[in-house]
User: Fold this.
Amino acid sequence: MAIPQRFSLVTLGVYDVDAATAFYRRLGWRQSTHSADGITFFRTPGPIIALWTSPELAVDAGIATEADAPSAPGFRGVSLSINFDSRDDVDVALDEWLAAGGEISKPAEATEWGGYSGYGRDPDGNLWEFAHNPFWPLDDAGMPQLDGGELE
Assistant:
């Protein structure tokens, strides 16, 4: 297949790019100089995170016209996840998320699969999972390392 197994960028549909940018900057995230009026980019060890208005994203994706472009829906059926080295790190991150202006939609708790996880929502309703998975060690960039090979 010609489609590589990766993704390069996640675009979060937001109501107000400036307000959303301010939220993520309060978390200590550093904005890329490639950002422009109406769109913000943040580099991560994985894909780039972009902030763009939900209506502009809908028009760009071909699912709406400028006349009928929707604002951000309440639940998008997607969450982004950040894995941490420990349960304590998850708790600290959720506290910082709340202090920056996000909300906690599910406090962190032990999971049935042996980990520890909680969820936060950014001011636009985008879901982020904060998790510690003791079975996935993190590399130097904080990215989970999956071992055991691949299924055929």
